[in-house]
C-alpha cells in the first residue's frame, strides 16, 4: 500500500504495518475511564505532513514548524454552549493514557468555537473532539494515537482501532491530484458594498462621539465553482502559499471549515504562553521597497496596532508573570498582504492554564473592538453577524494542558461546490470607508485565489 511521504518521494508502507499494529493493540482493554488513549510510534509514516482525503476531515498543520495533526474518526465529542464550557468539559474527563513506546507525546483533543452569538451558518457554538485515531508528525517523529470513550473489551477495542487504521492508511495511499484553476461566481454578499461603507461611516461617527475607540467590521460572500471543492486540496494550496500560518480543517458532516490563520490566540508549553497582536494591514508589493516602512510608520495603522497590543498585554499581566512585550512591532508578510505584528509572551501564574488564557483573550480587539462590551453592542446595532466560526478560535490541547489556538481568519466554509469566505477591517477614527472596503477585498482575494485551485 503506497503512502506518499509528501516530501517528493513515495515510500511503501511495509505490508506488516497493520499486522504489527494489530499485534501491539490486541491485549488492550478499557474499564473505568471515560476516555482511554494509547500511543504507538510508527517510523514508517514519518514525513506525512498533509492530510489525505477523508470524510469529516479534522487536522492542524504548521508547515513551517513541521507539525501535522491528522484525525480519523471520533472517539469522544461534546457540543458546548460556548468557549467558557470547553474547559469544564475537558476538566470533567477521566482520561487515561498508555504510551506503548514510553517516548511518545500526550493524546490531543481538538476544540473550537465561533465569535459568539447566533451563527447564520448553523455551526455549533463550541465543540470538543477527541479523534479515534490521530497521526501526529513532529520533528521527524510520527505517532499514532488511538482513543476510545467508554468501556470496551480487548476484542471490541482491537476491531475498532484496526478498522480506523486501515481507513487512514488507505486514504494516505490515495494521492490528491492537483487541479487547474477555475473561475468562481459570486452568488451573494453580506452586507452589500454600500451598506459596508455606511457602517464604516457610522462607526467613525461613534468613535468621534467617544462611544468606542475601535470596532471591527466584516464582509462575507458566497461563491460557486464548476466542480466540488476538495478540502484536502485547499489545505495543500494554503500550506504551499502560507507555511508560517496555522492551517486547519474542521469537518461538520457535509461541510468543512478550512483556514490559514496568521493570528495565534494563545500557545502554551508548560507554563510558558504567548499570543500575537496582529493589526494594521497594507498590500505587499515587492516592487515597492518603502511599503513596509510606510506601514510601520503610518499613524492610523500604528494607532490600531497599539490598541491591540495594550489590551493583550493587560490580559497577560492578569494571568502571567514575566510578561514580555517588544517595544516596536514587526512586519508579517503573507502573500499579497503585510501586517503589523507584535508577539507577547509570559509565564502563567499558579492556577492559570491554557484554556483560561484562551477564554480571557477571545475576542481580541483585532476581531471585535475596544472597549469590548461597547464594541459588541455597536456591532449588534449595525447588524454585524459572523458566520461559519469566522473570528472564533480553533486549536488543540493535550492531556497535560499544552496546546495552541488560532483565531479563525483567512477561512472558507466549504459545502459541495459552494464556499463562504469572510474578511474584516479594524475601524478607528482615521478610517476611510473606501480604504477599508479595499482592505477587505484584498483579504478576500487571498482566499478566493486559493479556492480557484481547490
TrEMBL record:
<keyword id="KW-0413">Isomerase</keyword>
<dbReference type="InterPro" id="IPR004561">
    <property type="entry name" value="IsoChor_synthase"/>
</dbReference>
<dbReference type="InterPro" id="IPR005801">
    <property type="entry name" value="ADC_synthase"/>
</dbReference>
<dbReference type="InterPro" id="IPR015890">
    <property type="entry name" value="Chorismate_C"/>
</dbReference>
<feature type="domain" description="Chorismate-utilising enzyme C-terminal">
    <location>
        <begin position="194"/>
        <end position="443"/>
    </location>
</feature>
<protein>
    <recommendedName>
        <fullName>isochorismate synthase</fullName>
        <ecNumber>5.4.4.2</ecNumber>
    </recommendedName>
</protein>
<comment type="similarity">
    <text>Belongs to the isochorismate synthase family.</text>
</comment>
<dbReference type="GO" id="GO:0008909">
    <property type="term" value="F:isochorismate synthase activity"/>
</dbReference>
<dbReference type="Pfam" id="PF00425">
    <property type="entry name" value="Chorismate_bind"/>
</dbReference>
Amino acid at each position: 500500500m503506497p503512502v506518499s511521504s509528501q516530501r517528493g518521494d513515495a515510500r511503501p508502507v511495509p505490508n506488516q504495518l497493520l499486522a504489527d499494529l494489530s499485534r501491539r493493540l490486541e491485549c488492550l482493554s478499557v474499564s473505568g475511564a471515560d476516555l482511554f488513549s494509547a500511543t504507538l510510534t510508527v517510523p514508517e509514516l514519518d514525513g506525512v505532513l498533509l492530510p489525505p482525503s477523508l470524510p469529516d476531515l479534522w487536522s492542524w498543520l504548521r508547515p513551517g514548524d513541521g507539525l501535522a495533526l491528522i484525525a480519523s474518526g471520533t472517539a469522544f465529542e461534546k457540543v458546548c454552549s460556548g468557549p467558557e464550557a470547553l474547559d469544564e468539559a475537558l476538566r470533567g474527563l477521566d482520561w487515561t493514557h498508555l504510551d506503548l513506546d514510553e517516548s511518545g507525546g500526550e493524546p490531543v483533543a481538538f476544540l473550537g468555537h465561533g465569535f459568539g452569538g447566533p451563527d447564520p451558518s448553523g455551526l455549533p457554538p463550541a465543540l470538543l473532539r477527541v479523534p479515534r485515531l490521530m497521526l501526529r508528525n513532529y520533528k521527524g517523529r510520527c505517532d499514532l494515537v488511538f482513543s476510545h470513550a467508554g468501556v470496551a473489551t480487548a476484542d471490541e477495542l482491537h476491531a475498532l482501532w484496526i478498522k480506523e487504521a486501515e481507513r487512514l492508511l488507505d486514504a494516505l495511499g490515495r494521492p490528491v491530484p492537483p487541479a487547474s484553476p477555475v473561475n468562481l461566481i459570486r452568488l451573494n454578499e453580506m452586507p452589500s458594498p454600500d451598506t459596508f461603507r455606511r457602517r464604516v461611516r457610522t462607526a467613525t461617527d461613534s468613535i468621534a462621539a467617544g462611544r468606542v475607540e475601535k470596532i471591527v467590521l466584516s464582509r462575507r460572500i458566497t461563491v460557486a465553482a464548476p466542480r466540488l471543492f476538495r478540502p484536502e486540496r485547499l489545505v495543500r494550496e494554503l500550506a504551499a502559499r502560507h507555511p508560517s500560518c496555522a492551517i486547519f480543517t474542521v469537518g461538520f458532516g457535509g461541510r468543512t471549515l478550512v483556514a490559514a490563520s496568521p493570528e495565534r490566540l494563545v500557545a502554551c508549553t508548560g507554563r510558558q504562553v504567548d499570543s500575537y497582536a496582529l493589526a494594521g494591514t497594507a498590500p505587499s508589493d515587492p516592487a515597492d521597497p518603502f511599503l513596509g516602512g510606510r506601514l510601520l510608520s503610518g499613524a492610523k495603522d500604528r494607532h490600531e496596532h497599539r490598541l491591540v497590543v495594550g489590551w493583550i498585554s493587560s490580559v497577560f499581566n492578569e494571568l502571567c508573570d514575566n510578561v514580555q512585550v517588544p517595544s516596536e512591532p514587526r512586519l508579517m508578510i503573507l502573500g499579497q498582504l503585510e501586517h503589523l505584528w507584535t508577539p507577547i509572551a509570559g509565564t502563567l501564574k499558579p492556577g492559570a492554564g491554557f484554556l483560561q488564557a484562551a477564554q480571557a483573550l477571545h475576542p481580541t480587539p483585532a476581531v471585535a473592538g475596544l472597549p469590548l462590551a461597547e464594541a459588541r453592542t455597536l456591532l449588534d446595532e449595525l447588524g454585524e453577524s459572523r458566520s461559519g466560526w469566522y473570528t472564533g478560535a480553533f486549536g488543540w490541547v493535550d492531556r497535560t494542558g499544552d496546546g495552541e489556538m488560532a483565531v479563525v481568519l483567512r477561512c472558507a466554509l466549504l459545502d459541495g461546490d459552494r464556499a463562504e469566505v469572510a474578511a474584516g477591517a479594524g475601524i478607528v477614527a482615521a478610517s476611510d470607508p473606501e480604504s477599508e472596503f479595499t482592505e477587505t477585498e484584498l483579504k478576500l482575494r487571498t482566499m478566493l485565489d486559493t479556492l480557484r485551485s481547490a
